[in-house]
Specification:
Elements lengths: L10 H11 L5 H8 L9 H8 L16 E10 L4 E10 L5 E7 L7 H12 L3 E5 L12 H8 L4 H16 L4 E10 L1 H13 L5 E5 L6 H4 L6 E6 L3 H4 L2 H10 L4 E6 L16 H19 L2
Parallel strand pairs: 3-4, 3-5, 5-6, 6-7, 7-8
Antiparallel strand pairs: 1-2, 2-4
Helix pairs in contact: 1-2
């Protein structure tokens, strides 16, 4: 399938997609409402297919890349769902490196997030991408089924699973004792919650279009935060000014970047919402942030 861009679709349709992606609209309701955008022989079902993820587009670092080595790891999580499995990737040669927890969207550990972990390994980090769906059998290989499973999760236990994974990753003997966290969509919100819960045990946080904590919770954050947002993602981005003010009040080093014209999910290079310029700029800021705070 030829890659399409967000600009190939009406913003109203992309807003409908956001509702579907986040479980506020069923597939049937999405198709019903998308019908008004189906013109020129294109059906609502065809639009849906054009907007679906194509994971072949996400492979920037192949799984068998000789620069990295990967494995599946299981972390005990007694306060969560018992345990959580994930994808652990590191450079093939170096030792004592910074560690980064990679937190997926509301679909589970899909190929895009695995590739993000490999991109971090190529950049000389030890990356661990846990799968919140572990207790439900893991990512099912299909995003729609993944969303159905994700909606069955106990969010409190899910957060405990990620906390357990963070603690395990930070104390690995091949790490340097510094831990960063990056997350996308729901994962961005989890990054913010980890920053609240972990205090100075988290050394750097990069939430992508993640829901912000309350001002009271933000006051507990110690980790430097570099937040990434899309201009069109009003539902999430409109929460940045208050979060910015709370972090300033708490004397937390932080930056927030709003990419003009970009939608929610702009970093995910498997769908038309991907914005190449914004994604590349945000990724460079991510690496610069982690290099600054995790290698000192």
């Amino acid at each position: 399938m030829q890659r399409k861009k967000a600009s190939d679709f009406p913003q109203g349709l992309l807003n409908l997609l956001d509702g579907y992606v986040h479980g506020r609209l069923s597939r049937r309701h999405f198709l019903d409402r998308a019908q008004k955008y189906a013109v020129g022989g294109v059906t609502a079902a065809m639009l849906f297919e054009q907007l679906r993820p194509n994971y072949a587009w996400a492979i920037q670092v192949p799984p068998d890349d000789k620069r990295i080595k990967s494995e599946t790891a299981t972390v005990e999580s007694p306060q969560g769902n018992g345990s959580i499995k994930g994808y652990l990737v590191r450079p093939a040669t170096a030792d004592k490196l910074p560690t980064v927890l990679v937190i997926h969207e509301n679909r589970g550990l899909n190929p895009y997030i695995e590739d993000v972990a490999r991109r971090l390994a190529v950049a000389n980090f030890i990356a661990f991408a846990p799968d919140a769906l572990t207790s439900l059998g893991g990512y099912p290989g299909d995003d729609e089924k993944g969303l159905e499973l994700f909606q069955k999760l106990d969010r409190g236990k899910m957060t405990e699973d990620f906390l357990a994974a963070a603690s395990w990753l930070k104390t690995r003997p091949d790490g340097n004792g510094k831990l960063g966290a990056i997350g996308f969509c729901v994962g961005g919100g989890v990054v913010n919650q980890l920053a609240v819960r972990m205090g100075d045990a988290l050394n750097a946080a990069v939430p992508f279009y993640g829901a912000q904590p309350t001002a009271a919770d933000a006051a507990k954050i110690k980790a430097p935060v570099n937040a990434q947002y899309g201009e069109q993602d009003k539902r999430i981005t409109d929460g940045w000014p208050a979060f910015d003010a709370a972090l300033t009040e708490a004397h937390v080093p932080h930056e927030g970047h709003v990419y003009q014209g970009a939608n929610h999910g702009f970093h995910n290079d498997t769908t038309p919402r991907y914005d190449e310029a914004a994604a590349k700029e945000a990724w460079q800021r991510t690496l610069d942030w982690f290099n600054k705070y995790l290698r000192a």
